[in-house]
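Q: What would this chain look like folded?
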Amino acid sequence: MKNNWKWIVFTFILLTLVVVGFIIIVSPLIKINKIKSCSDFPTRVDRVIDGDTFELCSGEKVRLLCVDTPERGKPGYEDAKLFLEDLILNREVYINTSNYDVETIDKYGRLLAWVYIENDLGEKILVNKYLLEEGYGDILIIPPETCNEVAD
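A: My prediction, written as structure tokens:
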């Protein structure tokens, strides 16, 4: 009877570890899929971190695809950050990830995305492109992304 009890406890602990491990592995993927589908509905920006990175109301950090703005302490940093704040802070944005079969999360855990806002006429404006057109950053091409969306 003692051996049966030990076997039951061992099995319970093993199953618990398997379930916890599965949750740890799968939960980030579920979060990414939720964010990727945001192109159909808006999500709010809670904080602008710098000229090309911001945080959504969900806590997810987003990095603008194909955009490179000055880093903290470099000339143009504050201007780029303020421009992005004026454009998207506390506003609803639409998120789309790359069309290529590539990793959508960078090494810093940020979602790499095309970001859109709606103007007063309900037309979607590509934030990535607008920021570049206004001179607040440079195009950053990391293959296989071609950045055609912002290059024309």
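The CA atoms of residues 18 and 24 lie 10 Å apart.
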